[in-house]
Amino acid sequence: MPSLRDYRDRISSVKSTRKITSAMKMVAAAKLKKAQDAAERAQPYSNSMAEMMARVAGGVTLTPSSPKLLIGSGNDQNHLLIVMTSDRGLCGGFNGNLIRFAKIKTKQLLKEGKNVQLITIGRKARDILKRDHADLIIKSFTGIGGKDKINFNDVNEISGYMLGLFEEGQFDVCHLVYNEFKSVLSQPPQIQQLIPFSLPTVNNEIKSEDGLKSPYTFEPEEEALLAELLPKNISMQIFRALLDSAAGEQAARMTAMDNATRNAGEMIDDLSLQYNRARQAYITKELIEIISGAEAV
Amino acid sequence: MSNKTFQFELVSPAEKLISEPARYVSVPGSEGEFGVLPGHSSLMSSLKPGVVTFKNADNGHEDIFVAGGFADVTADNVTILAEEAISVAALDKADLEKELSQLQSDLKLAEGTADKKRFDLKIEVVKAKLHAAA
Hints:
A: Pyruvate Kinase, Chain: A, domain 1, five-stranded mixed sheet, about 10% strand
């Protein structure tokens, strides 16, 4: 049977754990607010970009000489998956779920006889995927957005690397796997096709909204403009996913830490109860000893 | 001069930098600089590194350096998407010159065409900045 001292030690250790988890929860809540703000601020750019893409694409007829990013390389043998997780843990099932999702997708592609390559973003994706698929990982990016802010230059580095590979013909199809920030409670894994890019079909809607009659002039002409827009758009998609993922990470951590704090509270209650019982039993035992000692005299 | 204005927006990936009515905007298009007045015909253009000048409703004007991007012009709207945008007043000539010489020495060390191309692009941007600051 544990002594009273053991109980006291355990209670104080759980108490300090609770302090840490509740502090982490509050930090995560503050960071979540920031991350959400950042995601919101990026919205206008991404909206305008989508609008422009739709407008330009509306004027382009696809031919085999169209940008490869749009029509693909005419092949779908080689796949590239970009798996995006956080750098840090302690955020519940946030990374685990995503990586499981990515693994299923990888296995499925491999089963179909495709070649799969992986790019990981975030330390967790690298560390966990290395166990099963070390041979598939071609590049890992870590420390992006580690200092609270996600820098667009970092994103350009990722997309630049990826586009370089595409130009060399290293892969035909590229998907981005990330956690979408739906709400504080739900960040489901999401898969999005980056290459070839599927154009949004909001084209006509936008035009009628503006009530425009005059046709657009494009400088340079549509095709060249599209070729410039497409890589930027890929950067933007990755950027948006990073922001989503960052907000999701903080939300997941907040929820996880909230649960941990609550569990620690319950544990403290249980332990205090046990401690009080043990103390009572000890006192009773001593009393009995004293009384029976006194009776014996 | 008429009092007509149009909505001018300058957006970077991180945030919306400017959104206000403007009388006139001059844009460094990739095929030549162009000015936009209200009622301009619809135009979409990519940008080269250079200075965007806009005149707001009170005739105050502001110069903003953009390192490339896209402009979407309609009769009553101008939207500029720029990856990097900085007010010309905030450009520091001495810093830029330092950066330029640094980049030029980096370029000499660069290996591979892809690397060289990247540095060339950076140098071009810094040169455009210097030009804007002058």
